[in-house]
Amino acid sequence: MARFLLLSFLLLVALAVGVSSATSSAEEYWRSVMPNSPMPSAIHDIIYPGKAAVPAAHEDKVGSIFFLEQSLQPGSTMTLQFTRTTTGASFLPRQVADSIPFSSPMLPGIFSCLSIDPSSKMASSIKKTIADCEAEPLAGEQWFCATSLESMIDYSMSTLNSSNLCAMSTSVAKATSPKQKYTITGLNKEKASELVACHTKVYAYAVFHCHPTTASAYTVSLDGADGTKVQALAVCHMDAAPGVEEAYDKLGVKPGSLPVCHFLPQDDLIWLEFRSDDLMA
């Protein structure tokens, strides 16, 4: 009972304090450790949230559409829909996030304190997020669930063995845009042998599932049929990474024979060593 009351207190304080101080805490830490790196839209929009777009169906999400690397050519066209998948969750200051239990055994108490129906869709999403974070990585893999911006930055710096990093995300000029044909008007391959990719997860506050990858990354300029301009991140895998095996089959190529790519949703990030021309927001 005492443990439950302590958890209740920590969660209530975290939510109250997080709303008022997370913005300044996250921004101050960013400026102190990454003074030369612009803040990408995926992070900026969590710190300064606007109206969230309605998520697309899974099969229409831009991150689930795969294509061959050779398709990344100026003038090539693709039918895409860029949408956000965030729930409006905010970053908590690290000291607050670190004080809150984040484990499956504590789920009943977490649901109770947050007034979440254990049978609700949100409860299922929270349960899945924690399960994904607690799962054992496959051989040769590693991952980390960042429950604060500070911990995500520190993990990326430690993994890439550099304090001079740049974070990048897909940026769309319009808050919402329909599924439409986009034309590639330019692209640039990022010069990095290793990246850290961070994918947003559904939770009561901002949580990212991060992992290192040797995938290649491109910044791609796209023009939509309705005039929407997008600066997109495309990630290309040479190996049969989790989630990519099925893509090889659909594209009719042998796994590992050709790089298979996908665009990152607006909410996801990549981290790489900073260069002066890494200025995509």
Overview of the structural elements:
With 281 residues, the chain is of the alpha+beta class. The protein has one domain (2-273). The chain contains seven helices and twelve strands. Strands 1, 2, 5, 6, 9, 10 and 11 form a seven-stranded antiparallel β-sheet that branches. A hairpin with a 4-residue loop joins strand 9 and strand 10. The chain is globular. The termini are far apart. Residues 51-59 have low confidence and may be disordered.
Main structural class = alpha+beta
Oligomer: single chain
User: Helical amount among residues, as a percent range?
Assistant: 25-40%
What is the beta-strand fraction? 15-25%
Pfam family, one: BURP
Organism: Rhynchospora pubera
Protein name: BURP domain-containing protein
InterPro entries: BURP (IPR044816), BURP_dom (IPR004873)
Ordered list of secondary-structure elements with their pairings:
Blueprint: H1 2-33, H2 41-47, E1 66-68, E2 77-80, H3 94-97, H4 107-113, H5 121-134, E3 144-146, H6 149-160, E4 165-168, E5 171-172, E6 180-189, E7 195-201, E8 207-213, E9 216-224, E10 229-237, H7 245-251, E11 260-263, E12 269-273
Antiparallel strand pairs: 1-11, 2-6, 3-8, 4-12, 5-10, 6-9, 7-8, 7-12, 9-10, 10-11
